Structures are given as structure tokens and as C-alpha cells.
Amino acid sequence: MGKVRYGIIGIGKMGHTHAQKIKKGLDKNATLTAVCDISEERIKWAKQNLQGVKVVEDYKELIAMPDVDAVVVATPHYLHPEIATHALNSGKHTLSEKPAGVYTKALAPLYKAAADHPELTFGIMYNQRTNPLYKRAKDLIETGALGKLKRINWIITDWYRTQAYYDQGGWRGTWAGEGGGVLLNQSPHQLDLFQWLAGMPTKVRGYAKVGVGRKINVENDVTIYTEYANGASGVFITSTHDYPGTNRLEITGDGGKIVIESTLLGAKMIFNKLNKFESKFNAENKKFMPMRPIKITTYEYSTNILQKAIRWGIIGEHMYIFRNFSKAVLGKESLIAPGIEGINGLTLSNAAYLSTWLNKDIILPIDEDLFYTELQKRVEEEALITAGMTKNEH
């Protein structure tokens, strides 16, 4: 295989961007063969702007094309598992947009298909794993420099969205269309990194507020508390109505602390490395209230506004996942974001929802049937409210 021949299913906001960048050759190991969408407007756009690319309405038709090696799933959330499962079972390498699905129970057929076809590459668009600062943090944790995890805190409230954002499409801001709010749309990347860096917790307590300052049916203000098997704890805070927002991650371990903070101008990571693990110092120390208990060496890593513009604009972080995925298909390197790991971040969001709905702690693994039942209650309530509003309008 010379180049990986891609077919993109769904050319809305993200699929549209992916198609243009592959067409421009930003992944030298990729070529765009076909796109698919059910929107007449998007089909018209594709025919006018993607010369030489096949344009179809039926995703199964695209998947069946012999000149498509890999399928990209960029549809609304509920459809991700269904389409990705069909693609894998049809012998196609598959790259799914995040989240892997709306609820973990829907992933069972998908993961079975992946297990049944180990010869195929299955990935998920967790492009934040390519960010050099998070990669550096991952290395520090895996090499043991940070030591045993004590605490992870992330405030990610710079997802500012106005009412106009939610009003642009009927599926946005709804349980039936989107399956959730900030946890399912804006924060899956950070929830993935949260568990990628700290591991999966054993217990989750969530507080998800619906429609804070916005006329929507789903959450846009969330606080999640987590506990881990080794006694560590975590807090994840996110919203779409704060302005200006914050993006600050802190990870504390026995060997020091990692802080990563992002702004419009760039991002910076500081690693305060202890010259002696805190647990060892505590065991050996005989002084009452030592003034400067442990010597700290500070390491700083940063990305500037130009580097950020390249990663987000000129190239785009998603293209780093495409480049990695293409090389994985060609047998040149391992996946950065295996699709099978998509269930982890989704489990955290599902647990936060269920904890909020039931007003109690959720011990993992989550009760998938109970979550699905509770989600359907919200979908049905939403339908009744919508029907009542429509009736009153007439």
C-alpha cells in the first residue's frame, strides 16, 4: 500500500476540516477517496470543492468501496459506534471522532468487531494526546519521576459557548441529539487525558448542572470528584458559560508536582521535582515544621503563540492523529490513541451523569444498564417538553 485511501463519513464541522486538510496533502501518507453525508448542502459543497473525490449519501456505500482503505467517522455522537462497527466488520481500518459513543453499553459490538479483526487499525481522535506538554507529563509519570500519584486537579472552563452556538443545530444541547453537553462535546479530550495521566479511578461523584445561563436541556457546568485505588483523589471542573475561562492542570505525586496551564498566547508546563520523595523525607525528618523541607528543582517547558498557531491552525492537531493513524495502517508506528481506549473517558462522563441523577457516589465499573435506563428517561422527558412547546406554538 502506497498511501492510505480515506473515506470520510460526515462532512459537517470536523469532517469538512479533515477532508480539506487531507486533500491539501497535510498527511503525506494519505489521500482522500470519498466522502459521505445526508445533507444536500454539504453534498453540494463537496462536489464543488473536492474535485476527484467520490460523494455519496449512504455510509454503507462508502464503506463498500474497494478503493477506500480507512474510514473516518465524523457524524453526531450516537452514530459513532454503529458506523465504526460496520466499517471494521467490512474490513476497513477505522478512525472515529470523539466521543466513542454516548453510553458505554453501545460500545460492546464495536469492541467485539475490533477484537474479531486484529489485523485492522482502530483509532479514536484524541488529538490532545499529541500535545507535547501532555506527552512530556505522561513521560514523567511513566518513568517514575513524579512518583506515586497523590492528586490530580483540572479546571477547564475556557469552552465559552453562547446561546447562538446551541441554536445553530437541532441536535446540539439535547439529550436525544447530542447525548449530553460539555462532557460529551467539549471535554472528552480532557477526560481522556485525565485518565491517560492518572489512570482510571475506583469511585466517581459528579455534580452536573443543566442549562446554567443557557436555554439547553443538557449540562454546561460540571464538577467531578474522583478517588483512586492507591488513595489518591482528583477534581475535574468544566463549563461553557464562564468568561474568561481557565485551563489549568495540576498533578501532584510523591516526587513533585506538574502544572500545565494554557492561554491564548501559548502553554507552559512546570515540573517541580523534589530531590527526595516526600514519603522518604517524612520518614526521616526529625524537625518540627522545617522551613524549607525538601529541595526543589524546577523544569519549565513551553509552547508559544506561533507553535500553537501551527498546531491548531496551519496544520491542526487533528492532522497529527491522521499522520500517526496512517503510519499505523502502513505498519510504520504504533497508535497514539487506540480506539479501544475510548471507553475510559466515556466511562468517566457516564459515571458523572449517573452520580448526578441518582445523587450518590458511583463505584466503577459503571452499571451500564442502569445508566442507559436513566439516559432514556431524560430523552423521553425532553421529547414530551418539545412536543408540548410545539403544541402551544400552534
Give me the Rg, rounded. 22 Å
Widest β-sheet, arrangement of strands: 14-13-12-11-7-10-9-8-15
CATH fold field value of the largest domain: Dihydrodipicolinate Reductase, domain 2
Query: How is the main sheet built?
Result: 9 strands, mixed
> Which CATH class of the largest domain applies here?
Alpha Beta
Question: What this model shows, in words?
Answer:
By secondary structure, the chain is an alpha/beta fold. It folds into 2 domains: 4-120, 3-Layer(aba) Sandwich (Rossmann fold), CATH 3.40.50; 129-308 and 345-380, Dihydrodipicolinate Reductase, domain 2 (2-Layer Sandwich). Helix content is 37%, strand content 24%. It is built from 13 helices and 15 strands. Strands 14-13-12-11-7-10-9-8-15 form a 9-stranded mixed beta sheet. Strands 3-2-1-4-5-6 form a 6-stranded parallel beta sheet, sandwiched between helices. It is globular.
What is the topology?
Layout: E1 4-9, H1 13-23, E2 30-36, H2 40-49, E3 54-56, H3 59-63, E4 70-73, H4 80-89, E5 93-96, H5 108-116, E6 122-124, H6 132-142, E7 149-156, H7 163-167, H8 188-198, E8 203-210, E9 219-227, E10 233-239, E11 247-253, E12 256-263, E13 266-274, H9 278-284, E14 296-303, H10 305-314, H11 317-329, H12 342-358, E15 362-363, H13 368-393
Parallel strand pairs: 1-2, 1-4, 2-3, 4-5, 5-6, 7-10
Antiparallel strand pairs: 7-11, 8-9, 8-15, 9-10, 11-12, 12-13, 13-14
Helix pairs in contact: 4-5, 8-12
